[in-house]
Amino acid sequence: MPRARSTRILIAAHTPGLAETLARTIAGAASSIALLHEPSAGELTLSLPSRVAKEKPALVLLELKQNADALAQLRFHDRNTPVVVMLTAARPEVAFLASRLGADEMLLMSNTDEEVAAAITSTLSHDRTPSPQDQPAEPSPSASSNEPIFTIGKRASLQAEAVAIRRTLQETNWNRKEAARRLQMSYKSLLNRLKAFEGTGQII
Questions:
Q1: Helix or strand or coil: residue 140?
Q2: Does pLDDT of 138 surpass 50?
Q3: pLDDT, mean of residues 57-74
Q4: Cβ distance 62 to 71 under 8 Å?
Q5: Where are the beta strands (DSSP E) in the chain?
Q6: C-beta of residue 49 within 8 angstroms of C-beta of residue 77
Q7: What is the Cα–Cα distance from 32 to 86, expressed in whole angstroms?
Q8: 83 within 8 A of 60, measured Cβ to Cβ
Q9: Does residue 87 sit in helix, strand or coil?
Q10: Going edge to edge, which strands form the sheet with 59-64?
Q11: How many CA atoms lie within 13 A of 203 on its CB side?
Q12: To bridge 134 with a disulfide, which of 2, 43, 130, 142 should be the other Cys (CB 3.0-4.6 Å)?
């Protein structure tokens, strides 16, 4: 496999041994690989944005299992870094949210090593020139390293919803009924979400 020049990949996972396994799989696709392993998804959600901001990797290979909170938190701070998601549980709702949050590629544990490596190489080859509206958001003023994991996870879930709703509304030219259909939620539920997000700056 051709190796990208000066390409650093950050692998972020919480399943024991997964980061190391993925590192061996994609070793030929990067000039260097960094590992971020946390004992829980909540801790991964907390530490990922700051690690990406510090290391500025060319790509993040991110494990998602029970929810898409880690990706939501990352996208809240960084909308430009390419992200390939490794889904380690068969949860369609997580895959759906990940796609709405802007995952560049999604993989399953059943994918072969060759398929994983090819997805990484393909994603790295894409031209990802950021548009003005894709500039990173300001850090959440409520974010703190002393926050309980439960609070962080709850906020990240809300951010995931907000990002998914915003993207879908933009794609449907702000047709709320069509957006509700694509998001697989009732029109009334969408209106309630929009009302809840009023004044937070998360939708517009």
A1: coil
A2: no
A3: 92
A4: yes
A5: 8-13, 32-37, 59-64, 83-87, 105-108
A6: yes
A7: 19
A8: yes
A9: strand
A10: 32-37, 8-13, 59-64, 83-87, 105-108
A11: 17
A12: 130
- Tokens representing 114 are 């060759």
Q: Residue 22 and residue 130: Cα distance in Å, rounded?
A: 28
* Six token digits for residue 33: 């690989």
Which pTM was predicted? Answer: 0.67
pLDDT digit string, tens, across residues 141-174: 444 456 565 565 566 666 667 777 888 888 888 8
Paired tokens of 203: 């939708």
- What six digits make up the tokens of 43? 């801790």
| 22-56: pLDDT as tens digits | 999 999 888 899 999 999 888 998 899 999 999 99
Distance from C-alpha of 161 to C-alpha of 97, rounded to nearest angstrom: 8
- Give the mean pLDDT of 13-23: 93
CA distance 149 to 42: 6
**Are 111 and 202 a contacting pair, CB within 8 Å?**
no
For residue 181, which amino acid is it? R
